[in-house]
Amino acid sequence: MKSCCQEAGAPPPRGPGRRWLSYLLYAVVAAALGFVLWQQWQA
Questions:
Q1: Alpha carbon of residue 18 to chain centroid
Q2: Which of 20, 26, 34, 24 is nearest to 5 (CA)?
Q3: CA pair distance 4, 14, nearest whole angstrom
Q4: Burial of 13: CB neighbours in 10 Å, binned 0-12, 13-18, 19+
Q5: What is the mean pLDDT of each successive set of 10 residues along the chain, which is 43 residues long?
Q6: Residues 8, 37: Cα–Cα separation, whole Å
Q7: Which DSSP string corresponds to 1-42?
Q8: pTM score over 0.70
Q9: How many CA atoms lie within 13 A of 16 on its CB side?
Q10: Beta carbons of 3 and 11 less than 8 angstroms apart
Q11: TM spans, by residue (predicted)?
């Protein structure tokens, strides 16, 4: 996860706002991946 962000040249998150935003982004990605896997399991 860190390598892709470093390759993109994205600066590290600073401050509580950016930190919570990054946590929210990870939660959305994890939820989307879990939903896709659940759909595959249901099929």
A1: 13
A2: 26
A3: 18
A4: middle
A5: 50 71 97 97 86
A6: 27
A7: -HHHHHHHTPPPP-HHHHHHHHHHHHHHHHHHHHHHHHHHHH
A8: no
A9: 0
A10: no
A11: 20-38
